[in-house]
């Protein structure tokens, strides 16, 4: 049964942040929408990215060449900001129905009066119930026909991901070893060919998008004259997807760094989630934290999480001023606070769908635990049947 929009509420968090912690006049105050477990990522990412972008433009428009302020659009966002602040002071939350109404008003402010946006207005509830996206694994962009791409583009927001294949060199050290084992188990006397990766790159260039790659994986090669070739290609594709299932690669980060301006907010897609990504400077990325676990008096000071590496080993939590939180108990805890920091982090970790990311965060921030955590093997890739195709195609659908 679908949720009644009148009964759905979102928590609001009022954050203070700045680009320069040494400059007290640099501080910016922005209300953001928080996400509960399995919450509507696209809606939250859209609203938060709009608000942060506008506040940054108004406070630093002389510092960033790429920023051009449209007064009509900016005023519409400021009005929406005032509505959120009013709800924050009244109940620290806002109804979905009210939220969608104001997003609709914003959409009208961002489009030409003569443009028919009725279909887009009617599709706004999908920002809550789910958006299907089709990542391009070559460019780091998305299919221009995706509803998500159309909506975000209308709001002058970039929509990016870092799940990109490296066309020059293989980033995965496990590639040759894994393929050799797989080939041996399948009685492939030729073993893993040294040209396999080049063949994979060529194949990705031909298919490009995640949907087309999924379609190819679902091909039944049993009765095809190219059965051997198709099965080998499927093996190569499955291996790459398995080795890069966190949906971020080194070349993907490089493309983000090249394609984004300094001091720019974008909507970022990773691990089947939409989030707000900020490029502060060259090779310096931060994800806005929107989990409701980080709302208490203690944890509310944690605003950003860095995005520095594929492994996540170098990723840290940061305050609104982009100062690292190296020890949560020592740096943030107030003696009078009853909230358990351990419980807070445990809850946050449990709500992460990406098991590997959860383990990395726990290792980084649970300083008091000296015993090494057992490493569980990642979930094995599951081959899909024809009957599962419809379900499998929803891998990049947020519901």
Overview in brief:
The protein is 41% helix and 13% strand. It is an alpha+beta fold.
Features:
7-stranded mixed beta sheet, 399 residues, single chain, 12 strands, alpha+beta, 3-stranded antiparallel beta sheet, globular, disordered C terminus
Textual characterization of the structure:
- Among the domains are: 9-161 and 263-324, no CATH class; 173-178 and 192-244.
- The relative contact order is 0.12.
- It is 41% helix and 13% strand.
- The strands form three sheets. It has a seven-stranded mixed sheet.
- Strand 6 and strand 7 (273-281) form a beta hairpin.
- It is of the alpha+beta class and 399 residues long.
- The radius of gyration is 23 Å and the shape is globular.
> Helical proportion?
40-55%
Which oligomerization state do the chains in this entry correspond to? single chain
- Using only C-alpha atoms, the radius of gyration works out to 23 Å
Query: Which strand order spans the largest sheet, edge to edge or round the barrel?
Result: 5-6-7-8-9-10-11
How many beta-strand runs? 12
* Beta-strand residue percentage: 5-15%
Per the principal axes of the C-alpha atoms, what is the gross shape? globular
The number of distinct helices, counting runs of at least 4 residues, comes to 15
Distance between the termini: 13 Å
Characterize the main sheet: 7 strands, mixed
- Average predicted confidence as pLDDT: 79
Structural class: alpha+beta
Low-confidence stretches: 188-192, 335-344, 346-399
Helix-strand string: EEHHEHHHEHEHHHHHEEEEEEHHHHE
